């Protein structure tokens, strides 16, 4: 039983490490504002085109940045959930085998 719990903990750490290496992005205004994050929801890069500064006011830039950030974080959440669901199914399968042994 403890082996299964240890394996589950190891699996969770593996997933976290894998999510740190998966990049997701969000864009606004046709890519003029771009945000890159990890699937663990850590913002790694923000890129804003010089065009935005020429065309937009501060409030518009802030709103577009929020849109890009939210898109990147939504993608990160989707990837994270997919990874966790796969791991949970693997673990449940292993626990089912544990309880069916007799």
UniProtKB/TrEMBL annotation:
Gene Ontology CC terms, in alphabetical order: bacterial nucleoid; cytosol
This protein's record includes keyword DNA-binding: yes
Keywords assigned by UniProt, alphabetized: Cytoplasm, DNA-binding
GO molecular function terms listed in the Swiss-Prot or TrEMBL record: DNA binding
Source species, domain of life: Bacteria
Subcellular location field: Cytoplasm, Nucleoid
InterPro entries cross-referenced by the UniProt entry: YbaB-like_sf, YbaB/EbfC
Keyword DNA-binding: yes
Main location: cytoplasm
Function of the protein: Binds to DNA and alters its conformation. May be involved in regulation of gene expression, nucleoid organization and DNA protection.
Family: Belongs to the YbaB/EbfC family.
Oligomer status and interactors: Homodimer.
Protein name: Nucleoid-associated protein FAZ19_20545
Organism whose genome encodes this protein: Sphingobacterium alkalisoli
């Amino acid at each position: 039983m403890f082996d299964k719990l240890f394996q589950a903990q190891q699996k969770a750490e593996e997933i976290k490490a894998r999510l740190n290496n998966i990049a997701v992005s969000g864009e606004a205004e046709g890519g003029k504002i771009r945000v890159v994050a990890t699937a663990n929801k850590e913002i790694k890069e923000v890129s804003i085109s010089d065009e935005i500064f020429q065309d937009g006011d501060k409030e518009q830039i802030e709103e577009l940045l929020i849109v890009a950030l939210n898109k990147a974080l939504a993608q990160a959440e989707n990837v994270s959930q997919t990874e966790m669901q796969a791991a949970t199914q693997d673990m449940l399968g292993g626990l089912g085998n544990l309880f069916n042994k007799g």
